[in-house]
């Protein structure tokens, strides 16, 4: 059994704490806030790849759907264009999407979007082992950008829709990788889902506590404590707590320069985009401005940076800090680490770290 300290009780911290406590480790979670959940406090948050959460639940007790309602978001999104065109994109239905696009933009528009999804399918085959695997993902520099794929579309609304998969996340389609076509592919193939997030937080925290994890709130960690090239605990304002392993899920930005370097290279991309919406409906709305500028996702939340730093450069999405650091025993999970932000990817980062630490 190892003493594991998990820093942060957002989704990454909760998933890591649960899985590691279930593996028999002595887990302590230190959270600077008064309660668990982190960014899950904002809702609703549609997500794809529900299998990642299902897997954690199945391995650690009752299946996900027996604990909370996980329901498909239908439509998956509403595209709202400045010229008045609107499309409700059906969830997980390539044929329904084809029909909706033909109805909105004329016969053949659906087939053009099918080609985008087929591109995403090919991209996913290459990316899957990198996204779901043990990070430090390395792919050859891609010559094609998302804008290249978009220019191959004749229908201008579809071009705007495709490049929005970059601009919504603060990235420039002219430099973002063509492989971002995986996003529409994942939405159409695995569906877009939502769940009652406070309940998700309660179940994860409750289950982790049942497996022996201890939670301390109001505990702000200032950084990992090191002994040479290995971690031997964490530093709080009032002292050090010893640990054999530390799973860091808080944003690395709060650390001083030297220790921030522990988390690998930094990304130098565009600012993230978020907008606020006063009238919530469950399907996110993607708004396309008349100027042709960046599309925005409208959330019914109180603002803030949703998506972290953007994937501005062609290969930047593959350059997030790896989950296993060069310091022995120090692991990274969460939105700031591989494979990236969002419910499914953050939960996957915790799964990668848990696999690496292994059973007690
Ligand atoms: C408005 C909004 C809308 C979103 N919409 C979606 C969506 O539609 N679909 C989707 O998949 N994702 C969405 N996301 C993103 C998703 O919620 C996040 O990627 C995910 O919840 C991040 O989890 P995390 O554990 O990595 O980070 P966080 O939730 O940020 O957790 C980190 C925790 O660490 C704690 N902490 C920070 N510093 C310290 C420290 N020094 N010591 C101790 N504790 C510390 C924080 O208090 C926090 O609780 C949205 C996010 C927001 C804000």
Walk me through what this model shows.
The chain is an alpha/beta fold and 360 residues long. The chain has two domains: 1-69 and 195-265 and 315-360, FAD/NAD(P)-binding domain; 74-191 and 273-306, no CATH class. Helices cover 34% and strands 18% of the residues. The protein has eleven helices and 15 strands. Strand 13 and strand 14 (296-299) form a beta hairpin. Helix 1 (11-22) packs parallel to helix 9 and helix 4 crosses helix 5 (109-132). Residues 266-281 and 300-312 have low confidence and may be disordered. It binds flavin-adenine dinucleotide.
The bound ligands are: flavin-adenine dinucleotide
Q: What does the radius of gyration come to?
A: 21 Å
**Which strands sit side by side, in order, in the main sheet?**
7-2-1-11-15
Described by the principal axes of the CA atoms, the overall outline is elongated
Task: Report on the biggest sheet.
Answer: 5 strands, parallel
Query: Please, how many domains?
Result: 2
pLDDT < 50 stretches: 266-281, 300-312
Query: In percent, how much strand structure appears in the residues?
Result: 15-25%
Number of helices: 11
Taking the alpha carbons of the first and last residues, their distance comes to: 4 Å
Query: H/E order of the elements?
Result: EHEHHEEEHHHHHEHEEEEEHEEEEH
How many β strands by DSSP? 15
Helix content: 25-40%
**In the CATH classification, which architecture of the largest domain applies?**
3-Layer(bba) Sandwich
Overall pLDDT confidence: 85
Structural class, please? alpha/beta
CATH C-level class of the largest domain is Alpha Beta
Q: Could you tell me the CATH topology label of the largest domain.
A: FAD/NAD(P)-binding domain
CATH superfamily of the largest domain: FAD/NAD(P)-binding domain
């Amino acid at each position: 059994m190892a003493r594991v300290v998990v820093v942060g009780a957002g989704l990454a911290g909760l998933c890591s704490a649960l899985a590691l406590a279930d593996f028999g480790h002595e887990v302590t979670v230190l959270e600077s806030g008064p309660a668990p959940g982190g960014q899950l406090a904002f809702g609703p948050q549609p997500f794809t790849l529900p299998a990642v959460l299902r897997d954690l639940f199945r391995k650690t007790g009752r299946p996900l759907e027996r604990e909370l309602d996980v329901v498909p978001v239908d439509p998956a999104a509403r595209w709202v264009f400045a010229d008045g065109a609107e499309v409700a994109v059906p969830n997980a239905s390539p044929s329904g999407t084809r029909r909706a696009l033909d109805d909105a933009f004329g016969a053949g528009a659906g087939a053009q979007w099918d080609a985008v999804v087929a591109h995403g399918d090919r991209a996913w085959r290459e990316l899957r082992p990198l996204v779901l695997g043990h990070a430090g993902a390395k792919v050859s520099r891609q010559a094609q950008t998302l804008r290249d794929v978009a220019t191959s579309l004749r229908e201008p609304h579809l071009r705007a829709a495709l490049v929005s998969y970059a601009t919504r996340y603060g990235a420039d389609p002219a430099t973002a990788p063509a492989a971002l076509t995986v996003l529409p592919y994942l939405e159409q193939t695995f569906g877009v889902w939502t769940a009652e997030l406070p309940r998700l937080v309660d179940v994860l925290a409750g289950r982790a506590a049942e497996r022996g994890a201890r939670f301390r709130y109001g505990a702000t960690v200032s950084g990992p404590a090191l002994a040479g090239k290995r971690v031997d605990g964490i530093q709080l304002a009032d002292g050090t707590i010893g640990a054999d392993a530390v799973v860091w899920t808080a944003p690395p930005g709060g650390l001083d320069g030297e220790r921030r370097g522990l988390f690998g290279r930094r990304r130098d991309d565009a600012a993230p985009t978020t907008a606020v919406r006063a009238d919530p409906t469950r399907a996110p709305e993607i708004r396309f401005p008349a100027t042709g500028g960046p599309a925005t996702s409208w959330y019914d939340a109180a603002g803030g940076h949703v998506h972290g730093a953007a994937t501005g450069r062609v290969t930047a999405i593959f350059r997030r800090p790896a989950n296993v650091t060069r310091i022995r025993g120090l692991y990274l999970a969460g939105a700031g680490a591989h494979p990236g932000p969002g419910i499914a990817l953050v939960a996957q980062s915790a799964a990668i770290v848990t696999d690496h630490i292994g059973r007690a």
